[in-house]
Amino acid sequence: MSGAEKEVALLELPEPSSPGPGQILVAVEAAGVGPWDGLLNGAGWDVGLRPPAALGVEGAGKVLAVGPGVTEFAVGDRVLAHEAPLPGGSGFWAERVLINAEHAAACPPGLDAVHAASLPVNGLTAWQTLEKLDLSRGQRLLITNGGGATGALAVQLAAAKDIEVTTTASAAAMERLLALGAMELVDYHDPNWSAKVRGGFDAALIIATGTADAALPLVRDGGRLCSLTSDAPAEERGITSWDLYVEPNAAQLVQLAEQAAAGALKLAPEPVPLSEGPAAFARAVAGRAGGKKIVLTQA
């Protein structure tokens, strides 16, 4: 990202500074791209970027240097991370990035850089949402947009806990979501989709913009609704309703990475060369990733 005009373009950037106390310098091998990156471009999510700077708040790579006090990582270790704010003022869409060691997770041997970089933001969002929804075996969860990168992970994490998942999705995504553990699917293209599912859900997870108001009547009295689209409706009928914003969490990321490496979590990354970053940014912000997670690579 360049200066005042906030243009997303390929730039030559200065090298990050040497890591300070508690920090590590990472040689980025792959970096995730998501719709939230549009918010970094001067539109609402202040992660401490100091233009000209690289966008990107997630990625994977190898440790190049460690700062004073860092004992959990050594030079050469493979890591993945979601970092916000960015202590170096620049993000993961670069050859090197400075991050806080406490937000990095060791990358398991069975997880390549592209898959690792596709996991942090979407995985942590799904994990933190389900943790707060606090559902138990046999309870019912409605997800809007289960076909996207976050939704597909939420479906899998919920199904692994024997939570019954109903999700909206496109017709093209339905077979894949059934294989991931969804119990019931409804085509979001149908303007009356909310009338096609049985209500009484214990909770709803809103990932598709503009679906919170349609989902709320489907939640039982005393249930819960969590919105990832900043549009949680007013609480009614004893339903707890809130907006959730992802936070870095290395301990959760370690568990997610281990599950992905073991094949318990299916990921769908689409690797794209870093040189195509501006076009990848435009696709992600416009919601044209097609259910894939765009990942920028150094190759």
UniProtKB/TrEMBL annotation:
Transmembrane segments: none annotated. Residues 3-295 form the Enoyl reductase (ER) domain. CDD domains: MDR_like_2. This is NADP-dependent oxidoreductase. It comes from Streptomyces longisporus.
